[in-house]
């Protein structure tokens, strides 16, 4: 590659990162931390500094918190670390033969290595009225600020979707004393993510918080004359509404990769070091589909942990260069969390395929530990307001410690003592 085109000194190389979210930011930061000498360019479609997204559905929409409270690093960090931050631009196309990308404003960047950290987009419900005033989605800080402004004049809120985002927002709005109805098409809450037992726990708690939860029901139309006034449901009923939030999940942003001829299936397909079907191009975070040893299949994960860990691995692989064959493949233990009112849900492992769930008899209201198994194999642990068991669960999966179904079901079973005994016997 011509060094003049790449902006790097001869032999130093050039990395272009498409996407300025948590994953893209982490690649840039980790490259510099590991001593990468070449040019690092971070292209972010948003015109804002990279920031945290988890608070958007919780504290950010119910307080007057400033955007600066979300920022991952101040502007000076990028200058100090020689990260060329291109805000308000996106990578529009990839020329794999020339190893260059075209930007949305018409410029071009050459790369030795390209990292796709382009995330995911909200799923759009193709129903009448989805474009009325008073209908919102939540993915970016700008979305959250628009929603926060819209809530000022709204009392009756309908949330379409009973996943993490929908339920986090529901809890936040109940704290603001809004009238909240959650409409979920499936027969339970968070159906793709947690066990039925944990779904049932949160159904009871959200109803106790004052939210109306309608399961097995979908939005069929949003009604209003210019502005939302009601919603029509699939069961034929209608609900009055001043504001509607669509929280119906996301789809991976894999169009850029597909157009460039990269393999993709519900995300950009990558190997154990996050390389795509083109070895010069990596994909990480919400847009990447990879084989997980914890699910024994191809998965695509939407979590800060996954984004950060994959970003660090890619930075390590790039810095290793020709020695990259010695870099261990991705095997980070997946974990997730969701703050819903006073309840902190924490999940370690991928528990969706569980065929047996053992609930620990804690005897404490508002707390729960669910051990999720497939046959005799522990898939993961779901906890509510029990951080100790969550951390032990991470250790069990990371170290391949044995936790048998029969042991968990035993009267008086204590996870901490069990792990300690396993370590003593190791």
UniProtKB/TrEMBL annotation:
Residues 14-311 form the FAD/NAD(P)-binding domain. It comes from the Bacteria. Keywords: FAD, Flavoprotein, Oxidoreductase. Its cofactor is FAD. Pfam families: Pyr_redox_2, Reductase_C. Residues 335-417 form the Reductase C-terminal domain. Gene3D superfamilies: 3.30.390.30, FAD/NAD(P)-binding domain. The keyword Oxidoreductase applies. Signal peptide: none annotated. PANTHER family: APOPTOSIS-INDUCING FACTOR 1 (PTHR43557), RIESKE DOMAIN-CONTAINING PROTEIN-RELATED (PTHR43557:SF2). This is FAD-dependent oxidoreductase. It comes from Jiella sonneratiae.
């Amino acid at each position: 590659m011509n060094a003049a085109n790449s902006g790097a000194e001869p032999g130093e190389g050039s990395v272009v990162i498409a996407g300025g979210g948590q994953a893209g930011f982490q690649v840039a930061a980790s490259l510099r931390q590991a001593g990468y000498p070449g040019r690092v360019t971070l292209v972010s479609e948003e015109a804002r500094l990279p920031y945290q997204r988890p608070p958007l559905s919780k504290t950010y929409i119910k307080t007057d918190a400033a955007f600066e409270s979300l920022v991952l690093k101040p502007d000076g960090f990028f200058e100090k670390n020689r990260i060329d931050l291109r805000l308000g631009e996106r990578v529009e196309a990839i020329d794999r033969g020339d190893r260059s990308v075209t930007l949305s404003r018409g410029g071009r960047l050459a790369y030795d290595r390209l990292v796709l950290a382009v995330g995911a987009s909200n799923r759009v419900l193709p129903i009448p009225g989805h474009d009325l005033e008073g209908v919102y989605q939540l993915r970016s800080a700008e979305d959250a600020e628009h929603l926060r402004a819209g809530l000022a004049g709204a009392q009756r809120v309908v949330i379409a979707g009973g996943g993490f985002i929908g339920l986090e927002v529901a809890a936040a709005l109940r704290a603001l004393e809004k009238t909240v109805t959650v409409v979920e098409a499936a027969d339970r809450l968070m159906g793709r993510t947690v066990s039925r037992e944990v779904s049932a726990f949160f159904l009871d708690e959200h109803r106790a918080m004052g939210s109306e939860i309608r399961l097995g029901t979908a939005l069929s139309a949003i009604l209003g004359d210019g502005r939302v006034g009601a919603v029509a449901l699939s069961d034929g009923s209608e609900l009055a509404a001043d504001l509607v939030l669509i929280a119906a999940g996301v789809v991976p942003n894999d169009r850029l990769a597909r157009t460039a001829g990269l393999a993709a299936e519900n995300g950009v397909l990558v190997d154990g070091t996050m390389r795509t079907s083109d070895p010069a191009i990596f994909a990480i975070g919400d847009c990447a589909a990879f084989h997980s040893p914890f699910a024994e299949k191809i998965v695509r994960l939407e979590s800060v942990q996954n984004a950060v860990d994959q970003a660090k691995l890619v930075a390590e692989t790039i810095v290793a260069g020709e020695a990259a064959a010695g870099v261990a493949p991705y095997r980070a233990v997946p974990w997730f969390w969701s703050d819903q009112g006073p309840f902190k849900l924490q999940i370690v492992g991928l528990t969706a395929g569980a065929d047996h769930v053992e609930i620990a008899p804690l005897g404490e209201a508002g707390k729960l530990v669910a051990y999720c198994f497939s046959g005799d194999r522990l898939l993961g642990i779901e906890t509510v307001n029990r951080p100790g068991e969550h951390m032990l669960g991470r250790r069990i999966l990371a170290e391949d410690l044995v936790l048998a179904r029969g042991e968990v079901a035993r009267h008086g079973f204590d996870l901490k003592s069990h792990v300690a005994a396993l370590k003593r016997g190791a």
